[in-house]
């Protein structure tokens, strides 16, 4: 994806460091990966973190292997082949109308489902019934997401349109990061709406009864 404007909102250093060291959960990795595809600045910062991580690994004292390590490895070689994975939808087959991030390649992507007035979501398979959730969100122009807070960090990468949250405007290529406990109520651009790739760690907590009602039905 080629952008014609500078990216002004990025994941913070803690998120990028976790990405570099492999400790960031898969849902958030997919969103950060999407951001890195469009953001040279974050790719550069990530390179610095990866270099630091490499130095830290080299500085660690070697750890002795368990006495049965070889036997356990050999046992896995004798184990039967796991069944082939079920066929999955690919981003190329997903009728989104926009270019999907390469970070979603190979991920199963569900169909758009009505979630709330003017809002549809598409779940990333395998990342819905877990603590970490990843999904695409499509909001019609001028739609307000129900007021909510959440247990963990929420990341939203803008793929189309624009989003306004906490008086900040996020456009294509931007990554909106909301910290745990932040109560917020983003709304989509009044002219274009928006499509975002979102990762949430933990539960969201709608502040209003309408949001709680919706949550009962869609388990977000
Ligand atoms: Zn960035």
Q: How would you describe what is shown here?
A:
By secondary structure, this protein is α+β, with helices and mostly antiparallel strands. It has a domain of 128 residues: Sandwich (Jelly Rolls). The protein is 28% helix and 24% strand. It contains 5 helices and 10 strands; from the N terminus they run ααααββββββββββα. Strands 1, 2, 3, 5, 6, 7, 8 and 9 form an 8-stranded antiparallel sheet that branches. The protein is globular. The protein starts with 12 loop residues before the first helix and ends with a helix. It binds zinc ion (ZN). Zinc ion binds next to α3.
Instruction: Quote the distance from N terminus to C terminus.
Output: 29 Å
Q: Architecture of the domain at 91-218, CATH level 2?
A: Sandwich
Q: Report the order of strands and helices.
A: HHHHEEEEEEEEEEH
- Per DSSP, the total helix count is 5
Beta-strand share of residues: 15-25%
Any idea of the CATH topology of the domain at 91-218? Jelly Rolls
Q: Could you tell me which ligands this complex binds, including any ions or cofactors?
A: zinc ion
Domain Putative zinc-finger: 18-43
Pfam families: Cupin_7 (PF12973), zf-HC2 (PF13490)
Organism: Labrys miyagiensis
Protein name: Transcriptional regulator
Give a short synopsis of this structure.
This is Transcriptional regulator. This protein is of the alpha+beta class.
How would you describe this structure in keywords?
8-stranded antiparallel beta sheet, 5 helices, RmlC-like_jellyroll, Jelly Rolls, Anti-sigma_ChrR, Transcriptional regulator, 220 residues, 10 strands, 24% strand, alpha+beta, two-stranded antiparallel ribbon, binds zinc ion, ChrR-like_cupin_dom
């Amino acid at each position: 994806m080629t952008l014609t404007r500078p990216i002004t909102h990025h994941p913070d250093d803690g998120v990028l460091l976790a990405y570099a060291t492999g400790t960031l959960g898969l849902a958030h990795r997919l969103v950060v990966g999407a951001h890195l595809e469009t953001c040279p600045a974050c790719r550069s910062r990530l390179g610095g973190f990866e270099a630091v991580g490499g130095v830290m690994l080299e500085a660690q004292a070697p750890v002795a292997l368990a006495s049965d390590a070889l036997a356990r490895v050999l046992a896995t070689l004798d184990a039967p082949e796991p069944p082939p994975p079920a066929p999955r939808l690919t981003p190329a087959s997903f009728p989104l109308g926009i270019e999907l991030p390469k970070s979603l390649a190979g991920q199963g992507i569900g169909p758009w489902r009505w979630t709330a007035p003017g809002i549809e979501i598409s779940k990333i398979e395998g990342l819905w019934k877990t603590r970490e959730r990843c999904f695409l969100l499509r909001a019609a122009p001028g739609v307000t997401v129900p007021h909510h807070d959440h247990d963990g960090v929420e990341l939203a990468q803008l793929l189309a349109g624009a989003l306004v949250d906490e008086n900040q405007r996020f456009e294509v290529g931007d990554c909106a990061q909301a910290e745990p406990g932040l109560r917020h109520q983003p709304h989509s651009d009044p002219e274009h709406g928006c499509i975002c790739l979102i990762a949430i760690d933990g539960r969201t907590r709608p502040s209003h009864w309408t949001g709680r009602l919706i949550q009962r039905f869609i388990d977000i």
